[in-house]
Amino acid sequence: MTRVSRDFANTMQKEAVPAVSADVMFTSSRFPNYKIGANNQIVNGNDDPKVLTMKEVVARETAILLDQQKRLSVRDLANKFEKGLAAAAKLSEEARLREAASLEKHVLLKKLRDALESLKGRVVGRNKDDVEEAIAMVEALAVQLTQREGELIQEKSEVKKLANFLKQASEDAKKLVDEERAFARAEIESARAAVQRVEEALQEQERMSRASGTQDLEELMKEVQEARRIKMLHQPSKVMDMEHELRALRIQLAEKSKCSLQLQKQLAMSKRSEEKIPNLYELDGSEALGSYLRIKPSSDYALELSSCSIQWYRVSPEDGKKELISGATKSVYAPEPFDVGRILQAEIVYDSQKITLTTTCAIDPAAGLGSYVEALVRKHDSEFNVVVTQMNGVDHPSESIHVFHVGKMRIKLCKGKTAIAKEYYSTAMQLCGVRGGGNAAAQAIFWQAKKGVSFVLAFESERERNAAIMLARRFAFDCNITLAGPDDRSPLGT
């Protein structure tokens, strides 16, 4: 049996492998350590897992830019876009170099496969199997390289798109920076002009104040001199004497008014006695706004008023037209602002007989009430301290202080910060003086905010009660609403 020596095999291999062309460039000094994996895939055993592919680098940079876009200023964003554009250009250049390297790899693989095919025909036995295995590995490597080239082409297109996007974004950012800079310059110029106008206005005002200050000082000196002259002419003692005299005259006038009223009542009683009309009842009280009138018996033969039917009326002094005051069916009635200038009349019916009591003259207005109301009209909202005595026709035992707001558009009743009732002026709202209530009637009002919600409120004084009624009717009239008392079907407080 002939034995093949090792030297012969090496000699055959050296003669079978042709020399590699001198123009071929190798990226490494040794052949890569490839392995065949699953599905005949070639795996590079020397790949570093820490090395990122170009696609992953582009995706990471894009994510970082999108994440920081909201937090960067316009100028920083423009710089980032320029850096991203440079990185994209660099990646594009790397892709071009890798494409050239890929082409060189194809040439190398083709030459290697040709060499192995030439060697395959010269060897036999186990060496031939090794050569066939090497050829299979080269073909698998060629397939892997082709797939890699496809991925490289796709990455190249994505890098090109990203480069175009970053370039356009960089141009937009520069344009935005220029617009913002121009806008800021315009704002600065406008602010400078406004400051200059303010400075000129201040200087003009200062000049005018200096000129007017001298003139005001001269006028003030003249007024002081005139006041001194008046003070020398009118000594304090004389002024005090005049005030005392005026007070005495007012007291005398009030006494004479009461005396005149009493004489008028006596005259009316004497006329009735001449007409043989029994004087069983009479009206007692001042016939002026802020007071109250009371029907009282004037004879021992008079029946109790609780067993009689009472109704109050308003009578116009010009034409004698009589108007029923709805709800005024008690022996006490407090005139309200609507009664000023009219005569009040009370009819008492008992045992099919009727007695009519009439005021001697029209109801007089309260002194100073008109000017007080005019001062309140200039306010947007006037407040009055009140106590709720009735709520929805039921007595309210609490005596806590509430605040009654009369505004230009609505009326509100509050307790502290809590609004108990708050309604705009409407036809359903009613406001008038309480038709009854004894001595406190002159300080109380009836307010129906809306249907089913009503209050009887007691004020601190007659003046505030009448002012609140006049003010609310004035504001309601401005809203084209007539704010009056209730109709005959509405219950009133007693």
TrEMBL record:
Residues 100-267 form the Stomatal closure-related actin-binding protein coiled-coil domain. GO terms for molecular function: actin binding. It comes from the Eukaryota. Residues 128-230 form a coiled coil. InterPro entries: SCAB, SCAB-ABD, SCAB-Ig, SCAB-PH, SCAB_CC. One of its GO terms (biological process) is regulation of stomatal movement. CDD domains: Ig-PH_SCAB1. Residues 281-378 form the Stomatal closure-related actin-binding protein Ig domain. Keywords: Coiled coil. Pfam families: SCAB-ABD, SCAB-Ig, SCAB-PH, SCAB_CC. Residues 381-488 form the Stomatal closure-related actin-binding protein PH domain. This is Stomatal closure-related actin-binding protein 1.
